[in-house]
């Protein structure tokens, strides 16, 4: 039997293949969508943008933290400030305004805004739901949490916004609360130790215009062991304990 025949013989038939969930269910974004700007009716350089009086004062305070020759280091917090004012997304006008404020070539700001995924390049809903599906969360049931979110919001797919504009859902990688998995972030807050029931309650609260208490939803305070204290159960020794006599 030839090598090709042996390899072909080992390939399972379509009917025998098991269905495997993809690593990500979020629609793939083409690189030109991520890094290339194309004018639209809602995102073009002719749409004016400038900070409010309060945000301009805040921006000037941020810039003052850096030496004058290094004020370009303020580009990330200033873009974040602009995104928050611009209803959660960073338009080309926001980027151009920050570039002008920092006396930078616009391209230097575009480079930052297209590199960091924290800057949303398209409009988002009032409540930005980011469901973590990386390994620790997946082992704790994040697939069920993601399905709960999308189904509860009317069959939404990751990357989409509800018709009423209240929710945008995305699938993300590690949000840094692995010991409290599964979890999701809604706007600036983490919601941890999730179950399908607690997830639906959180979404209903946001839909009603309320803000549920962030953090673990299981009753624990932070990330303490559910089995109780298992470390540091004895009095720690003080200075000089367990030292050789000559060092006491």
Describe the fold and architecture.
- The chain is an alpha/beta fold.
- The protein has 2 domains: 31-115, Arc Repressor Mutant, subunit A (Orthogonal Bundle); 127-216, Glutaredoxin.
- Helices cover 33% and strands 8% of the residues.
- It contains 9 helices and 5 strands; from the N terminus they run H-H-H-H-H-H-E-H-H-E-E-E-H-E.
- A 5-stranded mixed sheet has the order 2-1-3-4-5, with helices on one face.
- Strand 3 (184-186) and strand 4 (189-192) form a beta hairpin.
- Helix 4 (75-85) crosses helix 5 (92-101), helix 5 crosses helix 6 and helix 8 (142-152) runs parallel beside helix 9.
- The longest helix is centred in the C-terminal third of the chain and has 12 residues, at 196-207.
- Pfam families: 2Fe-2S_thioredx (PF01257).
- One of its GO terms (cellular component) is membrane protein complex.
- Belongs to the complex I 24 kDa subunit family.
- Its cofactor is [2Fe-2S] cluster.
Keyword list:
2 domains; Glutaredoxin; Arc Repressor Mutant, subunit A; NuoE_dom
CATH class of the largest domain: Alpha Beta
Q: What structural category do the secondary elements indicate?
A: alpha/beta
Under the CATH scheme, which architecture of the largest domain would be assigned? 3-Layer(aba) Sandwich
In CATH, the topology of the largest domain is named: Glutaredoxin
Family: Belongs to the complex I 24 kDa subunit family.
GO molecular function, one term: 2 iron, 2 sulfur cluster binding
Region (Disordered): 207-248
Cofactor: [2Fe-2S] cluster
């Amino acid at each position: 039997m030839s090598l090709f025949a042996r390899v072909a013989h080992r390939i399972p038939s379509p009917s025998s293949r098991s269905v495997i969930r993809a690593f990500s269910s979020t629609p793939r974004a083409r690189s030109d969508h991520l890094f290339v700007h194309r004018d639209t009716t809602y995102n073009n350089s002719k749409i004016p943008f400038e900070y409010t009086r309060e945000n301009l004062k805040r921006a000037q305070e941020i810039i003052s933290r850096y030496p004058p020759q290094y004020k370009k280091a303020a580009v990330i917090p200033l873009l974040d400030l602009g995104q928050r004012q611009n209803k959660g997304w960073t338009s080309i006008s926001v980027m151009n305004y920050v570039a002008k404020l920092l006396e930078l070539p616009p391209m230097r700001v575009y480079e930052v805004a297209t590199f960091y995924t924290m800057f949303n390049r398209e409009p988002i809903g009032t409540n930005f739901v980011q469901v973590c599906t990386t390994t620790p969360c997946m082992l704790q049931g994040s697939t069920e949490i993601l399905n709960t979110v999308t189904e509860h919001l009317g069959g939404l797919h990751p990357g989409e916004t509800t018709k009423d504009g209240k929710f945008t859902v995305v699938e993300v990688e590690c949000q840094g609360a692995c010991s409290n998995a599964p979890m999701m972030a809604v706007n600036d807050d983490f919601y941890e130790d999730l179950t399908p029931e607690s997830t639906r309650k959180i979404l209903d609260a946001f839909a009603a215009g309320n803000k549920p208490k962030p953090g673990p939803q299981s009753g624990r305070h932070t990330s303490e062991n559910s089995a109780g204290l298992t470390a540091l159960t004895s009095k720690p020794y003080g200075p000089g304990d367990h030292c050789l006599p000559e060092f006491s």
